[in-house]
Amino acid sequence: MQVSIFNDLYSALCQNFEAHYNLIKVSTSAAATNALSKSGPRQPKAVLVVDAGLAKRKNKVVQNKLINYAKTGGTLLFCCLFSSFVPPPNFSAMSRSMELGWGFGDYHRTIFALNPAFQSVFGSEVFATLEKAYSMKTVHLTGVPPQAKMYVPTEASRVQSAVFPPNEVDQCPAVLQKHGDGFVGFIGDVNNEAGSQALIMAMLSMSLIQVVPNTCQRLTNPELAANRTPMNDVSDEFQDLPGLVGGCAVCGDTTPVKKCAGCKKVQYCSVDCQKDDWKSHREQCRKPA
């Protein structure tokens, strides 16, 4: 099921990968171990973990291989469907095993702003491709060092939900953390926002020397354009939908939604709801218009 959802949500992103990089896909522990055993020019320049199965205890050997890969100069990213499917206990155990220090935080939507300290990390040209602020429905992390927080809440950031109160936000949805000689990243966005796609591409194209220390955990309101509203900060794909949005096809949530990438007709508030509906929607999705 995860493969079908991944292909539906991330086909455009994968095409972008393949246009810029030699992409190698592995789906078993043996294949992952083999790929990570390469050295010299054959060693991966970066590894993207999109399958939450990695966090299972039985895959601890691969976890150790990956963290050693990062410590010796590699770039390791947890992204795409990983945050949607990883159980919190599995994530916590994996984080301890890999010496990351991260905790599994809250799951909700809010607006985050780009940490300006990362301009010197990515360089001005790549940094300019990143959204200065956007709304994410995301799994957050706790225990992230301030200098590793790529997107941070502003003083105005509040939980955006029809169920939960609009509390202040103090956790992190996107991380790039120094680990030995390399880096480990995490993007908790579950809806494949345009801003998150740009962030993944930036992490893959970076030429990192050091993460510049930054003690700022919250940005002040002037960091955002004065005329922005929550809807202005939602990705362009959401802004194109105001006449179509009638709520999520599964739960009815009126949070800005994504259309199914296959039929462009059915709308969901999250990957969780799309996953729940996929068994019944699959055949309808594939019918010719």
Brief rundown of the structure:
The chain has 289 residues and is an alpha+beta fold.
What does it look like?
The structure is a single chain. The chain has helices at residues 2-20, 29-36, 60-71, 82-85, 88-97, 119-122, 124-127, 194-205, 236-239, 271-286; strands at residues 46-49, 75-78, 103-114, 133-142, 149-153, 174-179, 182-187, 258-259, 267-268. With 289 residues, it is of the alpha+beta class. The chain folds into two domains: 2-214, Rossmann fold; 240-286, no CATH class. It has a seven-stranded mixed β-sheet with strand order 1-2-7-6-5-3-4, sandwiched between helices. Strands 8-9 form a two-stranded antiparallel sheet. Strand 8 (258-259) and strand 9 form a beta hairpin. Helix 2 runs parallel beside helix 3. The longest helix has 19 residues, at 2-20. It is globular and about 50 Å long.
Calculate the mean pLDDT score and round it: 77
Per DSSP, the total helix count is 10
Whole-number tally of structural domains:
2
Q: How far do the termini sit from each other? A: 24 Å
Low-confidence stretches: 207-245
Describe the sheet with the most strands. 7 strands, mixed
* Class per helix and strand makeup: alpha+beta
Helix-strand string: HHEHEHHEHHEEEEHHEEH
Helix content: 25-40%
Strand content: 15-25%
Q: Calculate Rg over CA atoms.
A: 19 Å
The overall strand count is 9
Rough outline: globular
Give the name of the CATH architecture of the largest domain.
3-Layer(aba) Sandwich
Highest-level CATH class of the largest domain = Alpha Beta
CATH topology of the largest domain: Rossmann fold
